[in-house]
Design brief:
The chain is mostly helical. The chain has 17 helices and three strands. Helices cover about 75% and strands about 5% of the residues. A three-stranded antiparallel β-sheet has the order 2-1-3.
Length: about 400
């Protein structure tokens, strides 16, 4: 029996991910086809610890949002000029590098030439093109407005890139500062402190507790440095593997929502992502119920996504979108009110877009505040650590010198 993790869409279009035990992959595919399910991706689960460690230290070469956005903009430009889809793809793939996206696009090009629709051809590469991309393309093909849909997708990706870049840029400098200071302190403890050990022994004087502790730490790190480094690498690999698992990701996201300041940043990012993705699909002509499964599955914080996962069932019971959203714990009241106004006015897409812009502004303010707080805290921590090291090393020398005098 094999354990296979399958990501699939059920008969209602809702995306799910589960682990199944089966004798063969073909048997599993036949069972899914009989139920009317559509498999998006499948992966054999690794059971041995060595396979898990190898997977944890393997960096998968995926497709970035930036690369997807560039392709979308270029394709829209070529289609806008009146070029057929096959000719447009041919131009884009001419002398293109063998990246994961271009490999997938070559197969998409061949499928389209054989008469397969663009959306279906893209759907065969769910590891490259996300659900929102495929389902929005489907809506564009049905409405005969593929160019406008590509424009909406490009605007969506551009907004997503901008807000992520804002968050990353705010954390780059503190991260570099923390890494450099950690390396400097480690070097001092491992390489510099042992030079003072012989001097302290020659003084033949009682050492303060802080100096004794520093010498013991230095001796321990010097003797077991490589073993500790290897242990830290194993720990990092274990954390990466844990974060890739559904349960691990759920627990990490729950932990983020308990941290001061960070929880507000996480919530605003999740609500912005929900509103903007929903706006893109609604403006693309996709019904709310069909959009929700894709939107919820694309949310990065799985705890908040789990809260929103009851929305499709509530809407199927005839409850309005705004009223259903109001029943979700911790949903901002303003978000509920704006969506209710959008429903009543028949302008839901624009209201969702405005809501996403509001949350993006909140994220910008929070990242500025976090940056302003982190820098002085890090400088203070560095000053305390370095000052403690200096005092621990110089105090015995000065004390011995005063006794000699």
């Amino acid at each position: 029996m094999h354990k296979i993790k399958v990501r699939y869409a059920d008969e209602h279009g809702r995306t799910r991910e589960e682990i199944f035990e089966t004798r063969s992959l073909s048997e599993l595919r036949s069972a899914f086809s009989a139920k009317g399910y559509y498999i998006l991706s499948e992966a054999v689960e690794n059971n041995s610890i060595w396979e898990r460690l190898r997977e944890a230290f393997t960096f998968k070469q995926g497709v970035s949002v930036k690369e997807l956005n560039e392709f979308t903009k270029l394709l829209r430009t070529l289609l806008k000029s009146g070029m057929p889809i096959t000719d447009a793809l041919d131009v884009l793939l001419d002398d293109a590098d063998e990246t994961p996206m271009n490999v997938a696009l070559r197969q998409v090009y061949n499928d389209i030439r054989e008469g397969v629709a663009l959306s279906k051809a893209l759907g065969r590469h769910s590891d490259v093109f996300p659900d929102i991309y495929i389902k929005t393309i489907v809506a564009g093909e049905k409405a005969g407005a593929l160019e406008n849909i590509l424009k909406r997708l490009s605007e969506y990706f551009t907004s997503s890139i901008a807000i992520k870049r804002k968050v990353v840029a705010a954390l780059i400098y503190p991260s570099i500062l923390l890494a450099v200071s950690s390396l400097a302190v480690t070097y001092m403890i491992v390489a510099v402190v042992p030079e003072f050990a012989g001097l302290f022994k020659s003084l033949d004087a009682p050492l303060p507790m802080i100096t004794s502790l520093l010498l013991s730490t230095s001796e321990f790190l010097g003797e077991w440095f490589w073993l500790i480094l290897f242990g830290l690498m194993l720990l990092a690999g274990g954390l990466v593997s844990f974060s890739r698992s559904p349960d691990g990701r759920q627990q990490i996201d729950a932990f983020k929502l308990k941290l001061p300041v960070i929880k507000e940043l996480e919530k605003n990012f999740a609500y912005s992502q929900f509103a903007r993705t929903m706006a893109t699909m609604v403006e693309g002509g996709i019904p709310i119920l069909d959009s929700l499964a894709v939107v919820i599955d694309s949310m990065e914080n799985r705890v908040i996504a789990t809260r929103f996962s009851v929305l499709p069932q509530l809407l199927e019971k005839g409850i309005g979108f705004g009223k259903a959203l109001k029943s979700i714990p911790e949903t901002p009241k303003m978000m509920v009110r704006v969506i209710q106004v959008g429903e009543e006015s028949g302008n839901l897409g624009e209201m969702l877009e405005n809501m996403a812009d509001h949350f993006d502004e909140e994220i910008s303010e929070l990242t500025d505040m976090i940056t302003a707080l982190i820098e002085p805290v890090l400088f203070l921590a560095m000053a305390l650590v370095v000052g403690t090291l200096v005092v621990a090393l110089l105090y015995p020398v000065l004390t011995a010198a005063s006794h000699i005098n």
